[in-house]
Amino acid sequence: MEPEILLQNLIKFNTVNPPGNEYRCIKYIDKILTENGIKTKILFKDPKRLNLYARIKGGSNSSPLLIYGHLDVVKAESDKWSIDPFKGIIKEGMVWGRGALDMKGGIAMYICAVLKAVNEKVKLPGDIILCFLSDEEEESKSGAEYITENYKDLFNNVKYAISEFGGFTIHIAGKKFYPVQIAEKQICRIEAVFTGDPGHGSLVSGNTAFKKAAQFINKNDYFKYPVHIHPAVKLMVNRIGSTLGFPLNLIFLLLLNPALTNLILKIMGPKGDIFKPMFKNILNPSVINGGDKINVIPSDITVKMDGRLIPGVTKDDFIYEIKKVCGSDFILKNIDYKGYEHNINQGLFSKIESALKESDPEGIPVPFLLPGSTDARFFSKLGIQTYGFIPIELPKDIPFFKTIHGIDERIPVASLKKGVSAVYNFIKNF
Ligand SMILES: [Zn+2]
């Protein structure tokens, strides 16, 4: 099976979450695997949100390798796209559509690589476990959270997994790097309530809740927050730095000196944007509620904010930072912090590195802390280290982080095919 055809078909199932309705898409994958002699299990809490599990027998030289991914996607504002995001159109040598990068493209690579290994009767070093999930783009309650809480036994002795994100291209100083996720930031959502003078809309207003909220949002400046150097970021910066020429290498390595991180990021300008979230906790106001009548100034306003923490930072540390940067003229409530313990296990990195190098000798794999969060957090509770490994070679004019969840999401067909061979090379030798 060709990965681009499989991806086209996966994109045609509209799995926008909410509501997800991933069941048709999962059933389609189930049919493909079953036709190729792979036994599957369908696991679910909600019959419209299925999850698929399959185990392929391998040798006993290695602990089982888990390959997982999600089939749901985020919504697409069709009117802003150049093509229909749910038709799976191939144009200009690329498959276009919602999920092409996140992560139906990756799932297509995984399935094609595993089927190739199965059909060629490759001797696998250990068992391969496939787990295709629903509901990652929301809370994973019908997907990874449900599976990892209720079917722990299916993952006995699994130490390593591959999934999103990693192996996509970033270009720095004329070189091509492949970041491989080995850790991810943690979610801490907060509501801040601002209270001020209420009043009539016709009069000169006093110190209103709106003014206080505006002051808070203005003070919430990235550069005022303290720097945290996470071990994954240290590995990444050292690795990238060591490949750059003089004097770029020395300047880049200064990112690891917290007294100079801000300065170096400012010097880097837009090229530093991808690195910024890896050095600090991030707080972004995203929803505002307050007032319901045009001529009444409300006494309070609630601002909901998305917080993303460097692993190891506690909720209390974060609140301390927020108050230091933004003052304290507000009340914080409904703090939703989902932290988890995770010790980085680098045991599989060199195998991933060789597989990526085999498919692109010029690319340089580097460990990476993902600014967002994925289902890896649930599997880490079972002691499973996930590596982001969906090898995607993107042209310079398609920036990965702007295209996933963005407009005109697409993936080159050639890159899909290369990805299949990189994953295939990896699963032969993990
Ligand atoms: Zn994803």
What does this structure look like?
This protein has 430 residues and is α+β, with helices and mostly antiparallel strands. It has 2 domains: 3-165 and 374-429, Aminopeptidase; 186-338, Alpha-Beta Plaits, CATH 3.30.70. It is built from 13 helices and 18 strands. α3 (104-119) crosses α13 (413-429). The two termini are 23 Å apart. Bound molecules: zinc ion (ZN). The site of zinc ion has 6 residues, from loops.
What tags apply to this protein structure?
2 domains, Alpha-Beta Plaits, globular, 13 helices, Aminopeptidase, binds zinc ion, four-stranded antiparallel sheet, 24% strand, single chain, alpha+beta, 430 residues, six-stranded mixed sheet
CATH architectural group of the largest domain:
3-Layer(aba) Sandwich
Helix content: 25-40%
State Rg: 23 Å
Strand content: 15-25%
Residue stretches low in confidence (pLDDT < 50, at least 5 long) are none
Per CATH, what is the topology of the largest domain?
Answer: Aminopeptidase
* Highest CATH level, the class of the largest domain: Alpha Beta
Q: Order of strands in the sheet with the most strands?
A: 1-2-6-3-7-17
Termini gap: 23 Å
Ligand types: zinc ion
Q: Report the sheet with the most strands, covering strand number, pairing sense and barrel closure.
A: 6 strands, mixed
Global geometry = globular
The CATH superfamily title of the largest domain: Zn peptidases
Number of strands: 18
Structural class: alpha+beta
How many domain modules? 2
Let me know the average pLDDT.
95
